[in-house]
Design brief:
With about 150 residues, this protein is mainly α. It contains five helices and two strands; from the N terminus they run ααββααα. The chain folds into two domains: about 55 residues, no CATH class; about 60 residues. The longest helix is centred in the C-terminal third of the chain and has 42 residues. The protein is rod-shaped. The mean pLDDT is about 75.
């Protein structure tokens, strides 16, 4: 039984195929001296191994895709140029800028709300109950000392 495989296209596939052929040749070289029952078990085992071998579907090659680039313990898709790093950072930069703008807008809105409440309190006459409140009296004392 001969299995025809697709010819390897990358240097890693070529090296793996070469290694597999050397291992097969080394294992097959000593089988002539073995008894018949052992050689038949080896043949059956080889057939099982070939049946379980992962079948690689032919890859339809169109336009060249981005290469997988290994950097240490991680891999990334792309050509590995600085342009890819810049383009990858744009969404993160947009997120940070958006959060900063939202924070500034909320701070301004909060400050204007507090200023509006303060202006309303300072321009209106306080209700009569405010004069009986000990906190209001303390506020008047501290504000009189600071002026």
């Amino acid at each position: 039984m001969k299995i025809t495989a697709q010819s390897p296209s990358t240097p890693a596939e070529v090296a793996a195929e070469r290694f597999a052929r050397r291992v097969t040749a080394r294992l097959s070289s000593g089988t002539d001296d073995l008894p018949y029952d052992i050689s038949e078990r080896l043949r059956a085992s080889r057939m099982q191994a070939l049946a379980k071998r992962k079948v690689v579907a032919p890859v339809k090659r169109t336009a060249p895709a981005s290469a997988v680039i290994s950097m240490g313990t991680s891999a990334t898709l792309g050509r590995g140029s600085w342009w890819n790093a810049v383009v990858s950072a744009v969404p993160l930069l947009a997120l940070v800028v958006g959060l900063v703008v939202i924070n500034i807008a909320q701070d301004e809105r909060s400050a204007s709300d507090v200023a509006e409440v303060d202006a309303a309190l300072l321009t209106d006459d306080p209700p009569p109950d405010a004069y009986a409140d000990p906190g209001f009296v303390q506020f008047l004392k501290t504000s009189a000392h600071s002026n």
